[in-house]
UniProtKB/TrEMBL annotation, chain A:
<protein>
    <submittedName>
        <fullName>ABC transporter ATP-binding protein</fullName>
    </submittedName>
</protein>
<dbReference type="InterPro" id="IPR003593">
    <property type="entry name" value="AAA+_ATPase"/>
</dbReference>
<keyword id="KW-0813">Transport</keyword>
<dbReference type="Pfam" id="PF00005">
    <property type="entry name" value="ABC_tran"/>
</dbReference>
<keyword id="KW-0547">Nucleotide-binding</keyword>
<comment type="similarity">
    <text>Belongs to the ABC transporter superfamily.</text>
</comment>
<keyword id="KW-0067">ATP-binding</keyword>
<dbReference type="GO" id="GO:0005524">
    <property type="term" value="F:ATP binding"/>
</dbReference>
<feature type="domain" description="ABC transporter">
    <location>
        <begin position="2"/>
        <end position="227"/>
    </location>
</feature>
<dbReference type="InterPro" id="IPR027417">
    <property type="entry name" value="P-loop_NTPase"/>
</dbReference>
<dbReference type="InterPro" id="IPR003439">
    <property type="entry name" value="ABC_transporter-like_ATP-bd"/>
</dbReference>
Length: 308, 280
């Protein structure tokens, strides 16, 4: 379990993380989502004791990271920026990390095998592709078989097969009862992997809810209606209590499904040119949510995806 | 929690208690030391630096003895043979400085420091292990280099009848002192590396301080110049590494080395405080 309480980080007069609080529970994948520069990596660094919070705290099982005598056996982390010396071989990198936490060398071969790097273990990591580097990072995270796994942008640079592998792996780690905390700026990836979402923008928590709740609340859908008798149709639908927005030559209707709207319009004998259910994607929902945080504007009533 | 999930979410999960890697031990300083040792020897810069140290230190001593043995025997130079028998170390110290700086700054340059500190969040322990690995290696390499230089250089001196015996005044002291000085100057560079976190900057500062400022202060007038010269780290620390110093005005070998150690300790303390307080 990871707990952030009033966590704040300021660099000079710039506030990177602005008093955020959230809890990451075991047994599920919690996605940490935000645009670049939202404060995700700063939060991760504070979690790992690399950066000191200006105020507040972030703890694992109630303890600060620095208080663990063998932290790799408690928290496994993949850091976004590569934390590797390019001249060292993958095996040597894992070897010194294992030594530092009193782990047997045998474990190095196990994780190399797990991430599929056994054949290139002796190569200098400077020659690794981005994807191989990510795999090595995941090997590092799993080295101590930790109950808490923190992955910062794990699918960056991976090919589709690698992305699927990470997805399966994170789901499996959560199913084993581990706490999995996964950061990404890609909503589409989160939608497939995470059970729970913590969304941040400009250093503040914008949403902290389950994935279904997030979809229900933010990924709104509407029915697009086109008709040569636009004004009459709009009037008709409004009278029936539906929410209607006119955009260009179309009407966007919320509050009833396409069939219901079609019947209502048809009974009055109006002509319909189009009647389409438009579901906005999670990506759009995320964009809308975070864009609002950037602009500090009041919540727009236009459903997400309306700009399409 | 506002979440409603299709599957119930437990607040605590009992992981298999045997899940942990079998054979794992609780880490202490020995594990940190072991980790730093593996790190130190698994990059190419280490064997290269040590190789260069031995080649330059021993090779230049032999060369300078071979070239000047005849003149020294005639006594026309006005210098003692003891000033030449560890001469190569004055050049070899550059490799010790490079190695010392890299041990720290390569971690910051590559981002490795983040891996290091997540593996061992106890920053003082990391620094102590690093310092021990670096100084231990440099002490052994420096002493071996000085002995090799002595053996080779003395062969030429003996041919001219001015050979130096191991039992002669200051010979053994200078051979061990070469190892001590290499360890000290490497640690000094590492400490500066902790302060500036940048390879080129650390090297520039240390080399300028030793090779440029250390000699320039001799130009300062009066007692100021005299003491500044005596107290500059390179000048104070290197006397212990040579049987007879070229500059007779410098501090005595062990006094000088004590001053040098205090200076290294001061910079190292500053480096430690920065390592502890600043974000990695």
């Amino acid at each position: 379990m990871i707990e952030a309480r009033g966590l704040t980080k300021k660099y000079g007069d710039r506030t990177a993380v602005d008093g955020i609080s959230f809890t990451v529970h075991p047994g599920r994948v919690t996605g940490f989502l935000g645009p670049n520069g939202a404060g995700k990596s700063t939060t991760m660094r504070m979690l790992l004791g690399l950066d000191r919070p200006t105020a507040g705290s972030i703890t694992v099982h109630g303890r600060s990271y620095a208080d663990f005598p063998a932290p790799l056996r408690q928290v496994g982390a993949l850091l976004e920026a590569r934390a590797l010396h390019p001249g060292r071989s993958a095996r040597d990198h894992l070897r010194w990390m294992a030594a530092s936490n009193g782990l047997p060398v045998r474990r190095v071969d196990e994780v190399l095998d797990l991430v599929g790097l056994t054949d290139v273990a002796g190569q200098r990591v400077g020659r690794f592709s981005l994807g191989m580097g990510q795999r090595l990072g995941i090997a590092v995270a799993l080295l101590g078989d930790p109950p808490v796994v923190v992955l910062d942008e794990p699918v960056n640079g991976l090919d589709p097969e690698g992305i699927r592998w990470v997805r399966t792996l994170t789901r499996q780690l959560a199913a084993e009862g581990r706490t999995v905390f996964l950061s990404s700026h890609l909503m589409s990836e989160m939608a497939l992997t995470a059970d729970h979402l913590v969304v941040i923008g400009r250093g503040r928590v914008l949403a902290d809810c389950s994935m279904p709740d997030f979809i229900a609340e933010h990924a709104a859908s509407f029915v697009r209606v086109r008709s040569p008798q636009r004004a009459e149709v709009a009037e008709l639908l409004r009278r029936d209590g539906l929410e209607v927005t006119a955009v260009d030559d179309e009407l966007r209707v919320q509050g009833r499904d396409a069939a219901g709207i079609g019947e209502l319009v048809g009974r009055q004998g109006h002509l319909l040119h189009e009647l389409t259910l438009v579901s906005s994607s999670l990506e759009d929902a995320f964009m809308t949510l975070t864009a609002a945080s950037v602009e500090y504007t009041a919540r727009d009533r236009t459903p997400a995806g309306a700009t399409r | 929690m506002t979440g409603t999930l299709s599957t119930p979410v437990p607040d605590t999960v009992a992981l298999d208690p045997n899940r942990h890697v079998p054979g794992a031990r609780d880490p202490g300083f020995a594990q940190t030391l072991r980790a730093e040792w593996v790190k130190f020897w698994s990059v190419r810069s280490t064997p290269w630096s040590i190789g260069a140290l031995v080649a330059l230190g021993a090779g230049l001593t032999v060369l300078v003895c071979a070239v000047s043995a005849a003149d020294l025997a005639e006594g026309t130079t006005g210098e003692a043979a003891g000033s030449f028998i560890t001469w190569g170390m004055t050049v070899a110290q550059i490799t010790a400085i490079v190695l010392g700086a890299l041990v720290v700054t390569s971690e910051y340059g590559t981002g490795m420091i983040r891996a290091t500190l997540t593996a061992t969040p106890h920053r003082g322990r990391v620094l102590a292990a690093k310092a021990l690995v670096l100084t231990g290696t440099l002490f052994v390499a420096g002493t071996v280099t000085a002995v090799l230089g002595y053996l080779g250089g003395n062969w030429f001196l003996e041919r001219e009848g001015i050979g130096l015996a191991l039992g002669d005044d200051g010979i053994l002291r200078s051979l061990l002192g070469s190892g001590l000085y290499m360890a000290g100057i490497g640690l000094f560079a590492a400490a500066v590396g902790l302060l500036v976190r940048h390879t080129a900057a650390a090297l520039s500062i240390v080399l300028a301080l030793l090779l440029v400022v250390g000699n320039m202060v001799m130009l300062l007038p009066g007692a100021w110049g005299e003491w500044a010269t005596k107290l500059m780290p390179g000048n104070a620390g290197s006397v212990v590494a040579t049987p007879v110093s070229f500059n007779p005005d410098l501090l005595d070998p062990w006094t000088g080395f004590a001053v040098f150690c205090a200076e290294v300790a001061a910079v190292l303390l500053a480096g430690y405080l920065v390592l502890r307080r600043r974000d990695a």
